[in-house]
Amino acid sequence: MGRQPCCDKVGLKKGPWTAEEDEKLINFILTNGQCCWRALPKLAGLLRCGKSCRLRWTNYLRPDLKRGLLSEFEEKMVIDLHAELGNRWSKIASHLPGRTDNEIKNHWNTHIKKKLKKMGIDPLNHKPLPMITAEKPPQNHQTRQEPPPEKEAAVMAETSLQSTVTEAKHEDKIPFDNSMEVDYNFCIDEVPIIETHEILVPFVNLSTPTSSSTSTPYDVESSNILEDFHFLPTLDWEYDHSNTMSIWDFLTNDDSERNASIEALVT
DNA sequence: AAGAAAGCCAACCGCGACGGA
DNA sequence: ATCCGTCGCGGTTGGCTTTCT
């Protein structure tokens, strides 16, 4: 005997919800509360299965939902929680009021994964990605294909990040084995990948029109690192200038330090 | 300007967990 | 102890939108 379908699918509607259906569902739940989902569609006059109603309510119609992109703080929370919990999206969502598991899952797959990869971190296990042997650039500069000017900054920033990670490895800031089969056994939030100023030096000096951007090397003492950090095109994370914690601090601090920083941010 | 490719996200599907009979 | 119905979760898909060529 096969598994029973979750509901009688004959005559039931699928696909995007209409405003009228939304209204019926909202009105019913606001009047009667969330009763058993299986019975709800009939009672609410909807030609949907209970599962579809539950999903629509929890992921889209619930009044306590936040709309819009995840904030940087929420994004960092997701990264941190993912390192701890893995793909348990509902557990992760429970730490982020107003966000759904589906929303977080989508955001992870479309945004965060890419950011981590750009940072040289494997989004699956939060460990450094195996170093890819970069092709030697052509010696003859005339043969080099120049990226369009508007893309150059992004390319440079990315290259700078990757090379800095590589440098950190060579400098024994993190253990490195050419075979890349070693299990580093650390999480993203434990990796002292690079110092903040190490990231910014080549980038700010080369491409940003900041007050500190001159032909001389980046002056850490007299420049506002956090402000300049906003020009980093491949990492659009922003930070409250009044707070001294950078994303790198967040990613590299130990738990107690990070928690203190989070508290400082929230308060 | 138009077609192709990539990005994005709401919604669906199927499985496992859980609780009641 | 077992069966069955329901719910919730995580993975996947479909189709709309945006960007690129």
Automatic annotation (TrEMBL):
Residues 9-61, 62-112 form the Myb-like domain. One of its GO terms (molecular function) is transcription cis-regulatory region binding. It comes from the Eukaryota. One of its GO terms (biological process) is regulation of DNA-templated transcription. Keywords: DNA-binding, Nucleus, Repeat, Transcription, Transcription regulation. The keyword Amino-acid biosynthesis does not apply. It is found in: Nucleus. GO terms for cellular component: nucleus. Pfam families: Myb_DNA-binding. InterPro entries: Homeodomain-like_sf, Myb_dom, Myb_TF_plants, SANT/Myb. Residues 9-61, 62-116 form the HTH myb-type domain. This is Uncharacterized protein.
